[in-house]
# Entry
Amino acid sequence: MAPRYSPHSGLEKRRLLTSLLDRLWELMAAAYGHAWTSHNGLTPDGVTGDLWAAKLSGLTMEQLRRGVDAATSRMKDFPPNVGTFRGMCLGIPTFAAVSMEIKRRDGMLSPFARLLWTFVDSYAFARADYHQARLMLREAYDMASEHVMQGLPLPPEPVGLVEAPVKPERHPAKPETVEREIAHMRRVLHELEPGQCPDVEVERGVKPGEVEA
# Structure
């Protein structure tokens, strides 16, 4: 009787990975042409194929498909190497994308962006110039990427956001209201003892320090 393999057996996973690598090679060759085949060959055989298989082992099929989608949609002049491709499988965004996300700050940050921010000295970042801030983000990005590549978890989603208090809408006072308040202040100041408010006393015709008759 022929042996039966469960979907989770090591041999079955190897077969699935081999099948996906064959498909990956086809897609990359179609997308990048000579730039891919000159470095990786026409098929995932030999040392290069073994290296890719080793680096991608342990990933789920969903993660591998995510990497294929990212690699073929982010087309550049040169195809990704195996380390970059593994990062795509794990959902690591590009440095440009996460930089724009942090720059906008127009909503809740993604898990990777929140992880990256834990490696940034926010006090120094707020006082840095453009080049210093970009260098700080780049270093934090590398540390966050290494964190994910090692299989460590991303920070959990925040329980909730505290809404900022709504500032009351202010309207300019009406002229009659202003006049009424000024008149009230004058009446209050009129009751002060002589010498406590010279400007008001001068307006009333009393020299500073004199007692009104």
Notes: The radius of gyration is 35 Å. Residues 1-5, 200-204 have pLDDT under 50 and may be disordered. The first helix runs from residue 10 to 32. DSSP finds eleven helices and no strands in the chain.
